[in-house]
Each structure stands twice: as C-alpha cells, then as structure tokens.
Amino acid sequence: MTATSAHSTPPRHPSPPPHPAPVDGAGPAALPPAVPSTLHTPVIAWFETHARDLPWRRPEAGAWGVMVSEFMLQQTPVNRVLPVYEQWLARWPRPADLAAEAPGEAVRAWGRLGYPRRALRLHGAAKAITERHGGDVPREHAHLLSLPGIGEYTAAAVASFAYGQRHAVLDTNVRRVLARAVNGVQYPPNATTAAERKLARALLPEDASTAARWAASSMELGALICTAKNEGCARCPIAARCAWQLAGKPAHDGPPRRGQTYAGTDRQVRGKLLAVLRDAATPVPQAALDAVWDEPVQRGRALDGLVADGLVEPLENALYRLPQS
After folding, report:
1. Which of 4, 123, 159, 179 has the fewest CB atoms in 10 Å of its CB?
2. Low-confidence ranges of the chain (pLDDT < 50)
3. Candidates 48, 70, 101, 152; catalytic one
4. In DSSP terms, which residues pair with 321 in a beta bridge?
5. pLDDT tens track for 120-158
6. 70 is catalytic
7. Distance from C-alpha of 199 to C-alpha of 202, rounded to nearest angstrom
8. CA 79, CA 263: separation in Å to the nearest integer?
C-alpha cells in the first residue's frame, strides 16, 4: 500500500458532532453512528504515522503477496506469520509456482501456523488463478470470490489492499473498532451480522483509494490500539468521538466470550501427527504416528479427520504421507 498525504488532524469539537440517523440494528438507539468523516481523517492520519512496516504492505508484494498474507493471518498473529510468509514468497513468488507443486508441499511449508487446511485452500486458489486468469491474481471482486478457499472477507481484503478498490473489509479488528467507536459496545457479535455489514458499507469513504486506506487504517487501529484486552484509549486518535468511551466504557453484556483451548484437543493431536509427516521425506508407517499420542481413540479420530480433510493421504501397508494430488 502506498502512503497518502493525509497527515492533518481535524479540529476538535467542543461537543460530540451531530449524528445521522442510526443504521438499523447497528447499535443502541442512544448511540447512533458517528459522522463518517470525523472518523476517517484522524484514523488515516494516525495510520500514516504508526502503521507497521509489514512486507505485504510494500509495493513489491503485489496482489499475490497480499493474498498469501491474508490466508496466513487468519486466526494467526503477525509475529508467527512473518518468517513463514518470507519463506513462502521466496519459494513461490507467483501463483503458478505454487500450483506446479503437490498440495502436500504447501502443507509442509505451512509449518506450525495452525489451521493447515488454509494451505490446501491457498494451493487450490493458486491452481485456479493459473488455469483461469493466466497466473495473475484477478482484480475483479466477483472473480476473487469465485476462487476456491476465498470467502467474503478475503475477496474484499485483496481487492482493497492489492488493487485499491472500495469494499467493506470486516475482520475481527475492524469489527471491534466499529462496535466501540460507533455502536458503543465493548465487543462485536461472535459472528459477523447483516447489521455490521450494513454499517461498514455506510461508513465507507466514497473515494476508492480513501476507502482502501480506511480499511487498512481501521484494521491497524484494532490490532495496535483498540485491542480486545488492555485497549490503549489514551493513544487512540478517535477517543473523543468513540461512543463506547463517551458512554463510560460499559462492560460486555452479551454471551460469554470463551478463549480457544488447545492443550489436549484434537487440534493438538492433529498438529503432532502432521509434524511427523512434514518432517518425513518418505511415507510414514502407522507406528511412527502412534508414538506421538498415547490415547488411541483420540489419535485415530484425529488421523481420520486429517484424511477426510485431504491433509493426509493413506497408502497401502499402513503408510501415510502428505497429499500428492
């Protein structure tokens, strides 16, 4: 993403600015959405100064680099993604390079990022890009959405961050920023709602390049300042306009927010089984997989799940390998 010249901060209002009518279902009637322009300018100006220098934000990353980063960053923090991302792009600088490899190589290179089905989906997207689009990540949002493994969020993110288009990009960070700044609640719903989509579209700047910058800026604000815990309101560029702050930061009163567990789960067992296969140059016998987890029922269930997901390929004589086709 290239920088803009929007560095000025808008004048402070002695009292909260007037509000348009609230978006239906977007939040409490007493806390209608803020005027969009009073959010865009300070958040984008903050981003110009405080945005992290990440490789997928550099011009040389291109649309493929943006797409790879979006797959890797789903439910995975930046510090874990960075080394894998760099290795991935060095090995497969274009979609066609990845498409030419067996899908198991994508799983192997994914390493310990977690949720390894993302590697298979990215491999599938690379094949489709190579076969349908001449090896170039398509610009059209509809074409992006038609690629295997690409959902609503990823299509909008690639179109916005790679091609500067005007789309509502709603990841967890953006949803949290809008929930607090506009709706006056601490957390967004557990799953993205139609009301959130409507609100995000209503807040989009009309100019495409500004809209793309707003998408990146609001996402970064959620990642660095308006975090799930220990939010840095004193450093927030829109604290004086934030509906949640103005309401006294009321505590979350929705369903309990449960953190994800890992130890002892099938996810952990799957990870241990895949680690054995990733490290092996040849097919692995059942006994080598049995050695990584003592409980046979859970181990068998995890292995069956890996096979069903296409992450492991069973062979004759109780041998297993990463998928080759």
Report:
1. 4
2. 1-33
3. 70
4. 313
5. 999 999 999 999 999 999 999 999 999 999 999 999 999
6. yes
7. 5
8. 21
